[in-house]
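Ops channel
N.P.: pipeline sanity check, posting one input/output pair.
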């Protein structure tokens, strides 16, 4: 079963955002290509802007504030992920040792996810000379939604989908501009994350059961997401802790991508 590992990081002290982006793309990305192991696809998402919590909060309740990047590592199956995070015969991979040079590793957040694409009414035409996936848009919004602890996970996903449909119905700009929507659902195997914790050196990271990715044509269209997320937060369906949730506007950067362009 295909599996994706998502890791959200913030820059280490002393680095500017530009230095973080340059290092992670050109040096760390090269390390990943040289030491590819079992990675099928590797996309970096460089954060342009974002928001944490909701406007009614008087202070940050979210411990995950400030993210500069989210990497997405795709594997054919879970054992390929383990073989990459803990390669046999290698005491420490270069990628494992490299994180301390650009990231505040203790605050990393990982999600092992299974992708579920949600249809949109107005997908992009086949040709799109943007920076994102061909046919889908140039800017990706990544929304980390914290499940309320009293809501059972399967009910949570069902309620999110219902709230999503209601929010889309109330958001004409989103219906026009959303090119692709993907539910990244936390996999059950995420509980077996010792290798990932060791690789990314996290300390008590928050647990997110869902990361929703939305792609749009450009930063000029992100108002469509704001319209949509405000409609979702006004929903009477009580499934998410919005104060502990956040979203990021990001530019996707391809590091490893052997997949043929989508027709």
């Amino acid at each position: 079963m295909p599996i994706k590992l998502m890791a959200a990081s913030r820059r280490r002290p002393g680095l500017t955002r530009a230095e973080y982006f340059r290092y992670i793309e050109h040096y760390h990305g090269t390390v990943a290509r040289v030491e590819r192991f079992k990675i099928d696809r590797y996309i970096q998402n460089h954060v342009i802007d974002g928001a944490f919590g909701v406007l009614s909060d008087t202070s940050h309740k979210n411990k995950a504030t400030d993210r500069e990047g989210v990497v997405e590592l795709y594997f054919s199956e879970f054992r390929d992920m383990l073989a990459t995070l803990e390669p046999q015969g290698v005491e420490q991979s270069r990628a494992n040792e490299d994180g301390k040079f650009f990231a505040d590793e203790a605050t990393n957040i990982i999600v092992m996810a299974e992708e579920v694409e949600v249809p949109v009414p107005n997908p992009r035409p086949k040709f799109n000379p943007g920076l994102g996936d061909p046919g889908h848009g140039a800017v990706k919004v990544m929304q980390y939604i914290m499940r309320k602890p009293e809501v059972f996970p399967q009910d949570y996903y069902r309620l999110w989908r219902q709230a999503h449909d209601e929010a889309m119905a109330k958001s004409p700009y989103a219906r026009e501009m959303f090119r692709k929507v993907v539910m990244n659902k936390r996999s059950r195997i995420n509980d077996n994350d010792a290798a990932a914790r060791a690789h990314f050196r996290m300390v008590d990271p928050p647990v997110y059961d869902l990361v929703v990715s939305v792609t749009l044509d450009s930063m000029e269209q992100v108002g469509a997401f704001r319209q949509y997320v405000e409609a979702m937060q006004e929903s009477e369906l009580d499934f998410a802790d919005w104060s502990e949730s956040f979203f990021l506007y990001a530019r996707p950067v391809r590091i490893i991508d052997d997949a043929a362009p989508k027709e």
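N.P.: looks fine end to end. The beta strands are 3-9, 41-52, 69-75, 109-118, 139-147, 180-186, 210-216, 240-257.
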